[in-house]
Amino acid sequence: MHRVVFMGSPEFAVPALRRLCELSVQVVGVVSQPDRPAGRGRKMTPPAVAVHARSLGLDLFQPHKVRDGQLRQWLLERNPDLAVVAAYGRVLPAAVLDAPRLGCVNLHASLLPRWRGASPIQRAIAARDEQTGVCLMSMDEGLDTGDVYARRHINIAHDDTASSLSARLSALSAELLGYCLEDLLQSRLQAHAQSSEGVTYAPLLSKSEGAVPWHQSAEMVHAHVRAMTPWPGAWSTLITSNERWKFFAEELRTDPRSGVAGQVLAIEPGRVLIAADSGSVWFTELQRPGKRKMAASDALRGGHVGVGECFQ
Q: Are residues 110 and 182 in the same domain?
């Protein structure tokens, strides 16, 4: 029976680990990121993959570094035929990539070479891509530059958020792994080099990128808010008070009406209309500082914000 190591960290990777454990292989270990502080109490919290690995009684390793030789040694001791990587969260050096007999393969959540990098799901939504997908690829020292064994496509829905699209791509990655792994281990699967055309990059998101781009079209604002949900979250500053408000993706709708970018154009029960550079967007949920998320019209009323005021 072939020996396989799994490497992953967030919830996105859990279905792939679960599917791997159902296949006719021996999962000889799991590598995940270290526990980190999370939540308001900053309690040390393990990654979702680590939690799942422990629940299955799998050998778990959570190294703080990947280049100090410890991860390579851990792999060599377990003598895997292959390592399957899904959203592990670290760039792996050649010494680690070469440790398994057949190397490492990665489940990447984009249609490579588009959106190489750490945030392909959010970037695809923000760019208003119509399709995305998952690639099973060989790993080299480049940033998602390895040859691709197989890919699966899905359409991006008009109301998809990063959260909902991630869930669908996560399930798709597990399905792709189950379909390809046996052929991969038996060297029956041929990899193809990525095209040199159409290369784009998806750098790690920062909190500042949540700022709503009112200077763009209503369609781009709509896409941006969905892409930033749930993290880092969409936000904008009310000019009159200099307060940062949060904007949510529930039931977003565009509208042809226009005005000054960021200006409140209309307030109706349960929703508010805010102008973009061209067109405008209806929001149904907002949150002002120190308050809970609530119906957009109630939030504006509570903040004494009326038609004509502007966010930036």
A: yes
